[in-house]
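Q: I'm building a small set of examples for a reading group on sequence design. Run inverse folding on the following structure and report the sequence directly after it, with nothing in between.
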């Protein structure tokens, strides 16, 4: 793709225009390092020979990307019965948690671990584990309940976990291990200066100002049942223009540079405090609990019972603040996730 055009030999493709800061196509795909070759292979040129709206084009691209990722990893590598493949989504916390699972499995078992990180979002990770392309990754209970199981938000954190564990076992043959200890809910974030100037502490208090604001959200947040559609309905939230769809790694930069005025981040993001941003309280309790839980293929646990024992040692070991510090070490201090995780496990005596 060049200058907002798809190019392919022998196929004439009509132009489309999407602003650079809002382009899912240009902004939402991380630039993988060489060690993430399986994901890098998904970046293949193709053309869509008919005119689509920007929103429909984003959706089409997402679906095609999913298909490419799964097809291209289908036959890669040797037989996996004696190794474990750990996956992750495409943001910092997920890479840290994927590395945490990988190091824990390596240190507590004799199994080699292959890392397949940056697998886009929840849907691709879920399809990858169902297809057997990965054996484990970390999911969030609220995401599992609403985005994967398509169930309404209800119950306490414990009840949501119990329902997700039951449904994943019965419907997908997946084991949901005990929570890691922290809850990473969506965070509606604005600049700290704006929060002080307008005396804003809750989402409800921000609603009257939103009509003059620009919002920036990730692709999944715009599409998920626990994302923007429900949030807007619950709070009567309206913006002056349609929210900009952005890569998760660009949200806070866009906010501090005043390209947008409100974003949906994550409560454990280390950059929130470092950049002096403000999190608005979800005073109508719209968001469900989002406890981080390892999800593992039952087939992998049956082949390697030691896998379950290794992961059980991580239960309850990470507080919200500890997760926030690890995220900041990677995002703010530019440290290698492997080093950050190694230091954490050593400090915890795991």
């Amino acid at each position: 793709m060049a200058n907002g055009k798809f190019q392919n030999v022998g196929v004439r493709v009509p132009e489309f225009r999407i602003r650079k800061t809002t382009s899912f196509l240009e902004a939402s795909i991380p630039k993988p390092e060489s060690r993430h070759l399986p994901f890098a292979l998904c970046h293949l040129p193709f053309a869509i020979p008919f005119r689509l709206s920007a929103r429909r084009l984003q959706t089409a691209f997402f679906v095609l990307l999913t298909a490419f990722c799964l097809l291209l990893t289908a036959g890669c590598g040797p037989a996996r019965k004696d190794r474990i493949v750990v996956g992750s989504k495409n943001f910092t916390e997920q890479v840290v948690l994927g590395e945490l699972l990988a190091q824990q499995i390596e240190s507590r078992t004799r199994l080699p671990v292959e890392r397949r990180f940056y697998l886009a979002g929840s849907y691709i990770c879920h399809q990858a584990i169902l297809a057997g392309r990965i054996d484990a990754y970390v999911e969030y209970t609220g995401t599992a309940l609403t985005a994967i199981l398509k169930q309404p938000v209800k119950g306490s954190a414990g009840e949501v976990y119990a329902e997700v564990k039951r449904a994943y076992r019965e419907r997908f043959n997946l084991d949901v291990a005990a929570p890691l200890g922290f809850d990473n809910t969506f965070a509606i974030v604005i600049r700290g200066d704006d929060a002080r100037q307008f005396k804003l502490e809750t989402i409800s208090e921000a609603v009257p100002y939103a009509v003059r604001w620009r919002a920036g959200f990730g692709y999944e947040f715009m599409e998920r049942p626990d994302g923007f559609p429900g949030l807007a309905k619950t709070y009567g939230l309206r913006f002056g223009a349609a929210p900009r769809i952005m890569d998760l790694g660009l949200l806070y930069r866009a906010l501090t540079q005043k390209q947008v005025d409100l974003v949906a981040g994550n409560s454990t993001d280390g950059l929130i405090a470092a950049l002096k941003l403000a999190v608005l309280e979800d005073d109508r309790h719209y968001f469900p609990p989002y406890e981080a839980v390892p999800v593992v293929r039952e087939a992998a646990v049956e082949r390697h019972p030691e896998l379950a024992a290794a992961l059980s040692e991580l239960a309850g070991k990470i507080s919200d603040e500890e997760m926030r510090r690890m995220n900041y070490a990677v995002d703010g201090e530019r440290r290698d996730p492997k080093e950050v995780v190694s230091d954490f496990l050593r400090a915890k005596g795991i």
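The two ends are 46 Å apart (CA to CA).
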